[in-house]
């Protein structure tokens, strides 16, 4: 089947392995061809999210009950204190935390054993063999084997950055972690600065304010907000991103000389589409980025494919229909299929061979 369109009230979907999991009202289930096989039905509203490896975390919002679903065995795992929120797993070792206590624990799921506990809340982010915590002006690194602090990086910037004529000066603050590449942790700030920090010492080794070829008419802003949507291609060692009619990339083997901006307005206008779907990092596979153009409410919206190598848009959903998606909630790509959830709760699945037809 080239195209599957499932009409219902789907709030979100999660792709893991070869499977698609759906939140449908009070039910959480797995997609089997065109039917949803319920895995659990709750009495209250709940949220669900993908965790590293093969787990999905489900939280009953009102009862404050947590569930951990193992996608390999298609079973729910019991025995975890449901006061904690799951944030990381590596080889069945779970890092969990609870803001209200506050506490942070490390739990071995296989041995049913508590490995360590800290009497404070840490919003861990996991990359490689390290755990990190962000607090606007600082970044802390922790050892996952014992929860002890390894180092802390502080931004310590007294300087304010110019946002352009008739706009106020802005402070720099750490926004999020992009990823870890060859012992350098890359983070992006609220102003779009890319910072490279050594994971061994916590020392800043790179500070890229803007692409080196930004247009002269932009002025001396030293701000590139678009970079907040950056991601890393670990195989090629490249940071890249797309936003509206701008594409950028940076070779991490020589970042200071390769951070470049590309104006892709011509190809956007040719295909009548721009990357305006906010709230999600780039969805990509190999050299292709799958992006969305969000319109107001449930107005017709569109998805497209941008090729990083040619820097051209190669396909848009207009080729199928100009009224295929009623707004956009989420897009994702896996197993040669593009998944699009619109604002009417309809999930559309397009096979890759159909996109190329």
From TrEMBL:
Protein name as it appears in the record: Uncharacterized protein
InterPro entries (UniProt xref): Quinoprotein_ADH-like_sf, WD40/YVTN_repeat-like_dom_sf
SUPFAM superfamilies: Quinoprotein alcohol dehydrogenase-like
Gene3D superfamilies found in the cross-reference section: YVTN repeat-like/Quinoprotein amine dehydrogenase
């Amino acid at each position: 089947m080239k195209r599957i369109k499932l009409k219902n009230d789907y709030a979100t979907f999660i792709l893991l392995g070869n499977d698609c999991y759906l939140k449908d009202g009070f039910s959480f289930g797995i997609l089997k061809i065109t039917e949803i096989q319920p895995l659990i039905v709750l009495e209250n509203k709940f949220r669900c999210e993908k965790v590293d490896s093969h787990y999905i975390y489900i939280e009953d919002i009102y009862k404050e009950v947590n569930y951990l679903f193992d996608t390999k065995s298609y079973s729910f795992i019991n025995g975890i204190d449901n006061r904690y929120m799951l944030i990381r797993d590596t080889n069945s070792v779970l890092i969990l935390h609870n803001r209200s206590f506050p506490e942070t624990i490390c739990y071995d799921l296989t041995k049913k054993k508590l490995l360590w506990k800290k009497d404070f809340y840490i919003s861990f982010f996991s990359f490689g063999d390290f755990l990190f915590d962000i607090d606007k002006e600082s970044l802390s690194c922790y050892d996952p084997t014992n929860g002890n602090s390894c180092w802390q990086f502080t931004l310590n910037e007294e300087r304010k950055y110019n946002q352009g004529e008739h706009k106020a000066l802005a402070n720099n603050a750490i926004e999020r972690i992009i990823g870890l590449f060859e012992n350098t942790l890359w983070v992006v700030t609220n102003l779009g600065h890319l910072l490279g920090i050594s994971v061994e010492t916590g020392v800043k080794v790179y500070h890229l304010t803007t692409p080196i070829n930004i247009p002269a008419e932009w002025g001396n802003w030293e701000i590139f907000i678009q970079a907040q949507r950056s991601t890393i291609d670990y195989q090629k060692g490249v940071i890249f991103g797309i936003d509206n009619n701008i594409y950028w990339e940076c070779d991490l083997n020589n970042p200071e000389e390769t951070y470049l901006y590309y104006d892709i307005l011509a190809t956007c206008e040719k295909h009548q589409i721009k990357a305006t779907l906010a709230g999600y990092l780039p969805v990509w596979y190999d050299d292709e980025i799958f992006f969305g153009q969000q319109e107001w409410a449930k107005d017709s919206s569109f998805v497209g494919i941008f090729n990083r190598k040619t820097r051209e848009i190669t396909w848009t959903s207009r080729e199928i229909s100009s009224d295929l998606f009623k707004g956009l909630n989420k897009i994702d790509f896996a197993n040669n299929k593009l998944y699009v959830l619109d604002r009417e709760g309809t999930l559309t699945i397009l096979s890759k061979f159909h996109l190329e037809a």
